[in-house]
Amino acid sequence: MTSATKVNPDLSDERKKVEFDVEEFTNWYYKGAENVAEKRFLENFFLSDPELEDKVPTSYLSHKEKYENAVRKAVLVVNKIKELQADGRGGVDIYMALLGGTLGTAIFREANPITVHFVMFLPAIMNHGTSDQQAEWISRAWNCNIIGTYAQTELGHGTYIRGLETTATYDPKSKEFILNSPNLTSYKWWPGGLGHTTNYAIVIAQLHSLGKCHGIQPFIVQLRDEETHMPLKGIKIGEIGNKVGMNTVNNGFLAFDNVRIPLKNMLMKNAKVLEDGQFIKPKSSVLTYGTMMFVRVVILKDMASYLSKAVTIALRYSMVRRQSPIEPNKPEPKIIEHVTQQYKIFPAIAKVIVFKITAEFLWDMYNQVTHDLDKGDLERLPELHAISCCLKAVCTNEAAQAVEICRLSTGGHGYLNSAGFQDIYGMVTAAQTYEGENTVMFLQTARYLIKCWEKAMNGEKLTPTVSYLENFIKGRNSRQSFQNSPSGILKAFQLAAAKKIAESNKHLEERKKYLSPEEATNQTGLELINASELHCQAFLLQATIEVLEDSTKQTSLQLRSVLKDLLELYSVDLALRYTGSLLEFANMTSSDIEFLQRSLEALLKKLRYNILGIVDGFDHPDQILGSVLGTYDGNVYENLINAAMKSPLNQEDVNKSFHLYLKPFMKSNL
Ligand SMILES: CCCCCCCCCCCCCCCCCCCCCC(=O)SCCNC(=O)CCNC(=O)[C@H](O)C(C)(C)COP(=O)(O)OP(=O)(O)OC[C@H]1O[C@@H](n2cnc3c(N)ncnc32)[C@H](O)[C@@H]1OP(=O)(O)O
Ligand SMILES: Cc1cc2nc3c(=O)[nH]c(=O)nc-3n(C[C@H](O)[C@H](O)[C@H](O)COP(=O)(O)OP(=O)(O)OC[C@H]3O[C@@H](n4cnc5c(N)ncnc54)[C@H](O)[C@@H]3O)c2cc1C
Asked: Domain Acyl-coenzyme A oxidase N-terminal: where (predicted)?
């Protein structure tokens, strides 16, 4: 991955000090040399296409130009994917790479305007459609003959989906549903691509039949004419305006005025309406929520890749930027020599690996559970729901925080759009809200944990992600002293999570004596969130310990040792961030904290000369990073001035505003 330009000697010197084989790490990280070759092939295939390159940085485009440029590219990208598939190449992974991920964001800078078509519209038809409905819609959608979105959230309700107000009323005479938006708060609001891109949508609406409401159900609805793209009769549609980030996505609003759709357009794999209007209940009412779960699982993978870009930029920059002598009369060091700077970046690098490992773990679990669901087995659905909710919350919260710290670690230059952090942050922080606001996600997990606690107290067997509660109840682990090792810290977190769940449950039960169960839950919300977060942190650490142990058996000693250091750094940092809970619940003492602090400092020192190999090993070409501060050659000052010269204002020496406003203003006092 060498650059044609001369590499900044500060960075090439650093590379000489890396003790392990960077390519070996890359192959380990992407699970095999074949995957790395495929990744590089795809990156080259897409990024070498001049049509996908921006002549002017997209941040200088207007809102409308940004959107139009993104749609142009989306079409090119899908056509290129089809080209690859015609050559017998690629499956779902290509979509993963291009709809989100690092390659997709390199092309779009913000996001792909048709991501929701692939990530929600299509999966919703697959998950909720009968085989007849799949036969009718899937191939048209897959070939993009129709483009759809997932219209669930409304102006008035996003979280509490049982409160959605759009209605779909069945008319047995015409065998049609009539869709209506009874008031302003029932307008659909936020669906990706809804504004001007899509012509179909999965609409989540309250089903009414034979005078009764049967709760929310998914309907497939045509919104625009397939030829003219004009909104169909009774449909009011538009875009909701520009946002913190993801401005290429064209999130929209939508209202219905007596829009009729045929009976067969309700997705009926789970619940059904018969021709006479009779409603057949689904096996489980939560099956309607399946599409959301799929996206929560996918989000985790994306967090690891977005964060891997941010840390690469921050670390490379820190190895060429020199500022502030540490010893008087000595030259200014690379800013990475300031220990506080190391602490801003190294733990975030460890997080990339932890999030990626856990995302893969969760992906396998998701596939297993959906396979079971297809056979009618719902047993592990609550567990998957619970773990995916808290992981989505912890990983998006921590990624957003870490990206912001990376930006701050690059000082003033990080505030420039050309540094690349703004686009990454825009993507990551959006995920804190979409697909379930994070506080609400923590509360969903807590609801499950409390149930598990009650089961464990009754001696019932628990599923693997919560089995540590059984150990706690049987008295195992509870009297152990705190141990400063990844597995010791894991035990401490499991103990803290178990005790916090127990304590929350105790307070919940106390409150239930004088409050309704729901209000008691509300009053206990702060503790429940805390319990959920501890549970999630324990899970992240456990999954990483297990996977690292297994997957590094075949690696070189040098690589294994660096990965072990990173795991230790991750766990020590985690323990230090949660001292409050560990002191309260996990037999930690103040001397343990002192020891952890020293371990942290020692680990930063130990990793100092190997850490560049890790970010180089993430293998992001400059185009993927999209940052003047993170290029492989480290020539940041040349990059900064070159990027500044691309500003439209720098294309002329004098701007017309001088003659129009400044000059008359400045001369007016004469
Ligand atoms: C096909 C191939 C294609 C190839 C593709 C290849 C892949 C390519 C990938 C490329 C990368 C792309 C990157 C991503 C970009 C994304 C774009 C952005 C998209 C953003 C989209 C959105 O933003 S779209 C809207 C999401 N909007 C929410 O997310 C609402 C949250 N709000 C709730 O989710 C509920 O409203 C809430 C709170 C549960 C209360 O609902 P409620 O009141 O009914 O629930 P209760 O609390 O009473 O819970 C009742 C019982 O349901 C249980 N349960 C609840 N949910 C469950 C569930 N999901 N599964 C199972 N069980 C569930 C619960 O555990 C209870 O169980 P129990 O009774 O046994 O305890
Ligand atoms: C970039 C982006 C893309 C999106 N794409 C789509 C899409 O394609 N399709 C779609 O349908 N939707 C989409 N959404 C909408 C998104 O799913 C919702 O915004 C999200 O679910 C949060 O709902 P809300 O906006 O109603 O927030 P609210 O629920 O109003 O949250 C506001 C505050 O209230 C708190 N709160 C709410 N309920 C509770 C509770 N029970 N307990 C404790 N606190 C609570 C929250 O924690 C938060 O602090 C998108 C949103 C964004 C930002």
From this structure: 21-147
Distance between CA atoms of 621 and 603, rounded to whole angstroms? 28
Residue 406 lies in a domain: yes
- Taking CA atoms only, the protein residue closest to ligand 1 atom 44 is 162
Q: Is residue 640 part of a domain?
A: no
The pairing of beta strand 148-151 with beta strand 279-280: unpaired
- ipTM beyond 0.90? yes
Tell me whether residue 137 is in a domain. Answer: no
Q: How far is the CA of 255 from the centre of ligand 2 (A)?
A: 19
CATH code, domain with 29: 1.20.140.10
Dihedrals phi, psi of 326, to nearest 5 degrees: -85, -45
**Atom of ligand 1 lying closest to residue 293 CA:** 59
Q: What is the pTM of this model?
A: 0.96
Shared-domain flag, residues 471 and 565: yes
The string of pLDDT tens digits covering residues 120-149 is 999 999 989 999 999 999 999 999 999 999
- Residues whose CB falls within 8 Å of the CB of residue 400, separated by 6 or more in sequence, listed in order: 425, 428, 429, 431, 432
For residue 133, being part of any structural domain is answered with no
pLDDT tens across 442-461, in order?
A: 999 999 999 999 999 999 99
Last residue of a domain, one of 592, 608, 624: 608
For residue 256, give the CATH number of its domain: 2.40.110.10
Ligand 2 atom nearest residue 438's Cα? 47
H/E run at residue 82: helix 63-86
Distance 428 CA to ligand 1 centre (A): 18
The Cα 82–Cα 318 span in angstroms is 41
Per the structure, the count of domains in the chain is: 3
34 is catalytic: no
Which segments are annotated as binding site? 153, 192
Ligand 2 centroid–CA 157 distance in Å is: 8
Q: Please check whether residue 260 is in contact with residue 176, taking contact to mean a CB–CB distance below 8 angstroms.
A: yes
